Every structure is written in structure tokens, then in C-alpha cells.
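Holo prediction. Input below; ligand is adenosine-5'-diphosphate.
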Amino acid sequence: MNPFEALGLGPELIRAVTDLGFEKPTPIQEETIPAVLATNDDLIALAQTGTGKTAAFGLPIQEQLDILLSEVQALILSPTRELCIQIHKDLESYSKYLPDLKQTAIYGGSDIVKQIKALKNKPQIVVGTPGRVLDLIGRKVLKVGNIKWLVLDEADEMLNMGFKDELDSILETTPKEKRTLLFSATMPDAVLKIAKKYMHEPREITSGQRNVGAENVRHQFYMVHARDRYEALKRIADINPSIYGIVFCRTRQETKDVADKLKNDGYNADALHGDLSQAQREYVMKGFRSKHLQMLVATDVAARGLDVNDLTHIINYNLPDELEIYIHRSGRTGRAGKSGISISIIHTRESNKIRNLEKITGKKFEKKLVPTGREICEKQLFNLVDRMEKTEVDEAQIGEYMDVIYKKLEWLSREDLIKRFVSVEFNRFLDYYKNASDLNVREEKERRKRPDVEIKQARSFSRFFINLGSKNKITPPKVIGLINDYTKRRDLAIGKIDIMKNFSFFEVDQQFEKDVLRGFKKATFEGIPVSVEISKPDTKQGRAEGKRERLKEKKKGKKKRR
Ligand code: ADP
Ligand code: MG
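Structure of the complex:
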């Protein structure tokens, strides 16, 4: 018996997945499919990317749908346009022998009229991003009053992206009797809250694969000043000439910037983020899968759709806000019995994050020193010699040129020849690293002996006050978005973000203080004028200074008005 048949799926679906080359269910499918088919339970499934979640919920829903009933029976929510398109495409391929089954995808940034038309065609399954789904429910084009299944795919990412309110509204509009299936790679509090509020005694499934590879992953970190982050990344890449990995960034903008810089500096790197068209995205992924690209710079969401198994490194260019995401990122290396290294580039005030990560993972994080220019040159030199030794010579092709080349180089001795061939490639590194400085930040103990150094480092971030808080529905990603939009600076490091009820604080690399203040001068947020000012440290002196400055500002303002 076909193993999918044993799970309870019908012949049409089995034929389709066989066409796709699925021979047996993945562990998450093995547990989820019968649970969805044979019980009425709500379900929480925890599993990493690439474990086959789409088929895990897609197949049993398609199996049970009433094909003769022309109304929306299943709603699948997913965080991004790309993932919606991907899920829709996958569902279509599973249902190719069920011609009467209709499904459509709706997402922002795309022609809504076309999507409305597709909905009027009465699909039984709708896949959508929370924003667009809510919009279309509001326009009364999407009717979810009779749905039997609601799927929250990549629930953690949807919440990370600030879709909490949309999810709340959608969950409240849908019928109570429906079944909710929640899929997530991590289980932060926000996801648990949603589950508690809207799900009924959910059955929990954790895919056996969740922590696969974790044993083979070594965790390392480099401590540098925030401004040296990029330089440190380059050195890490240079000391690992055969690196094949993902560089994780916090924002789309940062992803673009880092990838652009790497490309300019001659690395085989490219960016994967939500602003790319489907075609661009596929192009980048193809380049990475075929290893033409050695480094893929990506946001967490963008990297989710990507299943590549033999990564040598994961680099956290910035640590994620949600530390559990770290586990998810690092679990992308060290798979299939291979070993991998997860590297974090941190600045001086993030060592507590490393300690927390050590607690969460139960692993020791090794502090590494950013390699010096000399060490890198050495490594590259031996790598070059090694490659040269292993290069296969194609006698047939190159033979015809050799006579001329021998003649031209006749006057050089063997030693001279080798030196020159090696230098052709090696000079680039030598030149670059000739006067390279030490990027490592001094050890804690040493710093204590030198109070001046410590003060300087403690001040490398400036804290700002902003008059928007949770009551304005502001979230950390929205704050990052505002900073990027209004400063138009691509290279500024963003530190801690604290959201309060009526206002918030955020930190930005001190050297960009002026850019932030200037940028936000005429800023607005959903019609509200935004005011951003430097927030003084909460000490007596700080408060006094703050007061003096506000007074000064007031006087200045009065003068101007006069
Ligand atoms: P996830 O949503 O968990 O990240 P996907 O559902 O996108 O994973 O599946 C990842 C990849 O695995 C896809 O290319 C999919 O076609 C493939 N896949 C899914 N199930 C199976 C299976 N049972 N056998 C072989 N390949 C599968
Ligand atoms: Mg998926």
C-alpha cells in the first residue's frame, strides 16, 4: 500500500503527490494528515522550514472539502506574498486530478480587482496575507462565515511582522465551530497567546526533525563595535574561503545594503527579501542552490521558503529580537549529518544576549577573535595554492596555447613563475589588508581597568524618545520602518526598542544622532505628527540636562516665531 494511502488520502491526491516525487510522508505529514482527517481537534504543529508543512495541512483539507459546495471552506493565512503564491502553487499541484476544486491566492501589492474577480468565481480554498484578507472581508467580497478550516501558517512570522491586530479581527469573524490549525517554527509568547485565546484544547505536534542538526552545530560569536559589523563580516568570509551560508539581517533595507556592499567588494553574494518579484526571487534562489552564490543575505521571512541542506555557516549579522528565532536560524546548518557553524556578530552591549542564548540552547558559545589582516592573507594564500594543486588541467583544450605561453615565459625561473601566478590573485588581499586595524573589542576585564574606554563604548548608541506607543499600534518592526523611511540612511545600526503605552524609546548608533533628529523633523505616522528627541539617561544629571535643553528649545522656538 502506498504510505500516503495508509494515512487516509484518496487516489487523486496520491496520484498527484506521486507525480511530484513524494514517496513517503515526512514526519510532520505522518502525524498531521491523520489527525486532520480523523479527528476534530485543533492543532498546533511546531516544525522547521522544509519539513513539508504545506502538504501536511493542504492534503487532508483538500481530501475532505465538499467539491460540490461553491463557497470558501478553508482559509489559509500566511505572512508574505511570496509564501502565499508558493502555497497556492503547491495546492494546485496536489489537486491536479481534482478539476472541480478551486483555490485562489490574495495578497497585498497586487491588483485587487483581479483578486475580487477570482473570489467571485467561488473558490473553496483561499490563501492570503492577513492584511489583504481583512480588507476583502471588509469589502464583503470574501465571505468566511462558513469556513471549516482556518490555517495559520508561519504564525510566529505573522506576529513578528506586526499582524496581531489583523489576526485578532479575522479570528473573531470566523465561525466558532471551525478547526484551527496553527503552524510555527518557534513558540514565542505572542503565538501562545493567540493559541490560548482562539483554539480549543489544541493537540500539539512537534516534528521529530525540529532540532535535527543542533548537535552538529558549533556556536561562535565575534564582538565588535557596531560600526565595524560589515568589516567583521568581510573578514569572516575571507577567513572561510569556501563558505556557503546565509547571512541573516533584521530589515529588508539592511539585507539590501549588506548584499550590495558584498557584491561591490567582489563576493559571490546576493539578497533575498520581500521586495523582490517572484522572478527575481527565483533567480537568486537558483544561484544559491547551484552554489554560484556563496552567501545569501536574507531576512528571516524571506529565507523561510528556502530548503538547502549543506550550508557550512549561518551568520547572524544582527541577532534577532526574538532569541528563539536564533535556534531556528542556526538549525539551518549542521543538517543531514554534516557539521555547521553558527556565527553571531555582536556589539559590546549584547553579551547578555549571548548568555541568554547559552541558556536557551544549552550550548557553549565560543568567543572568537576577528582575524587580523595577516591571518586572512595567510589563509587565502594557502587556499589558493591548494586550489591550484587540485585544479584539473584540460590538456586537449589548453594544449594548443601552451607553446606560445612557454615561449613567452621562458625567461622566468620556476620560483619567479610560482610567485607571479600566486600574486595575480593574492595581491588583492594583500593590498586590502595592508593597514587593516584590529576590530576586536577589548575583553571585559581589561576594560574595567580602563574606565575611559568603557564610557566610550557604553555611549555608542543614542537613545531617542518618540511620541508613539502601543496605543498608536506601533510595533518594533514599524519603528524600524519609520527610522529607515525618515532618515533615508541605509547604514545606521538600530539598538534596543522599548514600546510603552503612550510613547516609546529606540536606540540608534550615536554617530547618526543628527540624521535621526533631522529626518524626523516633519515626520508623521498615520496622520499624527511625530516628535523624536534625544532621551537623556535616567540619572539626576541626565534629567537636569534634559530640562535645560527643553527650556533652551522653547526659548529658541519663541524667538523664531517672533
Ligand atoms: P515547509 O512549509 O515546512 O517549509 P514545504 O511544505 O514548503 O515545507 O515543503 C518543502 C519541500 O519539500 C517542498 O519542495 C516540497 O515539495 C517537498 N516535500 C514536501 N513533502 C514531501 C514528501 N513527502 N516527500 C518529498 N518531498 C516533499
Ligand atoms: Mg511553509
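Residues 209-213, 445-459 have pLDDT under 50 and may be disordered. That is the main takeaway for now.
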